[in-house]
Design brief:
The protein has a single domain, classed as Alpha-Beta Complex (Nucleoside Triphosphate Pyrophosphohydrolase). The protein has 4 helices and 5 strands; from the N terminus they run ββαββαβαα. The protein is 30% helix and 30% strand.
Amino acid sequence: MLVRQYRGPVDRELLEIPAGTRDVDGEPPQETARRELSEEAGVRASDLRLLARVLNSPGICDEETFLFLATGLEPDQAPRPEEHAEEERFMEVIEVPLGEVDDLINSGRLIDAQTVLGLLLARDALGETAR
């Protein structure tokens, strides 16, 4: 599941994996992932598996990303928190088969680094191959 959303710094819509900031004090990364999956994609996962922990741009900042594989997805009926409603209002959830990831990358339709890495790691973890 990907989300399409507008990103101002690059002035375009991007396809991205559901993601978010660890902005709740003391919240473990896995709980942040569950919360963001619900808020952005409207689903909950029965299982989350850490695939990687990466530094985004260590030459200029200390930001790190935790990439999880979410499986056993079910619709989540919990309402989005009001403070996030505006941010997610224009997001579009798109289901993309892992077999199409290479085509999306090669065509330039998938260019977000954490999304590319996350999908390739997920494909490997699930034992799927490119078509």
